[in-house]
Amino acid sequence: GAVVSQHPSRVICKSGTSVKIECRSLDFQATTMFWYRQFPKQSLMLMATSNEGSKATYEQGVEKDKFLINHASLTLSTLTVTSAHPEDSSFYICSAVGTDTQYFGPGTRLTVL
Amino acid sequence: GQQLNQSPQSMFIQEGEDVSMNCTSSSIFNTWLWYKQDPGEGPVLLIALYKAGELTSNGRLTAQFGITRKDSFLNISASIPSDVGIYFCAASFSGGATNKLIFGTGTLLAVQP
Question: Does any CB of chain A come closer than 8 Å to the CB of residue B39?
């Protein structure tokens, strides 16, 4: 089946720093990728839709200036959490859209101290 | 953000028992999906449903797309220890699993050998 990778799998950073998370579709091209956030013991919440070659579209309540998304190629989307704070600590999961479904990455655990 | 109401919240069963969980919403959806998530991993698609009334099986798993398009259920027969995990329903307004998904609140399944 289709494979989606995320890097890093875990990251710990100090408050105020920026963190970049990569999402790659390894064996297919994805013009659309989605970014989700999952707090402990909660469900996945869609943050934004990443479209190759155009600006990302953000869900209501998600700050676009804080969560920067760049879909630079058909196999790579990046999410940068700028000026991270402890409340941004969460599990960030991307998905890449294939022919008939979206494939989820393994997630990135972000801890902001 | 919007979520789907999923029940039960958790289940603790003996190996060999059957399991049933469901998902409801006040909105109509055109696609219902069921995912399984292991700790620290992204969700993995189990079953996709595209038509109201559709009943689909995948091994010991059976899921149905409610006639009203506002609900779906998932049954697992003869549970085994590796069924342990969190099960999420997800739904999409636009047809297909390639669009934005809204996730349910999750059902934690524990199976006692």
Answer: no
Q: Is A102 exposed, middle or buried (0-12, 13-18, 19+ CB in 10 A)?
A: buried
Biggest alpha carbon–alpha carbon distance for chain B: 41
Q: Find the range with the poorest average confidence among A51-55, B77-81, B108-112.
A: A51-55
User: Which residues of chain A does B101 touch, with a Cβ-Cβ cutoff of 8 Å?
Assistant: 34, 44, 46, 102
| Ramachandran assignment for B78, one of left (phi > 0), alpha (psi -120 to 50 degrees), beta (any other) | left
Q: What angle do CA B34, B39, B40 make, to 5 degrees?
A: 105
SS3 of B82, please? helix
Which pLDDT tens digit goes with each residue over B14-61?
999 999 999 999 999 999 999 999 999 999 999 999 999 999 999 999
Amino acid at site B62: T
User: In this complex, is the C-beta atom of A108 within 8 Å of any C-beta atom belonging to chain B?
Assistant: no
Q: What is the per-residue DSSP string for chain A?
A: ---EEEE-SEEEE-TT--EEEEEEESSS--SEEEEEEE-TTS-EEEEEEEETTS--EE-TT--TTTEEEEEEETTEEEEEE-S--GGG-EEEEEEEE-SSBEEE---EEEEE-
Check B101 against A101: CB less than 8 A apart.
no
Question: Measured between beta carbons, which residues in chain B are less than 8 angstroms from residue A26?
Answer: none
Structure tokens at A48: 């934004």
Mean residue pLDDT of chain B comes to 94
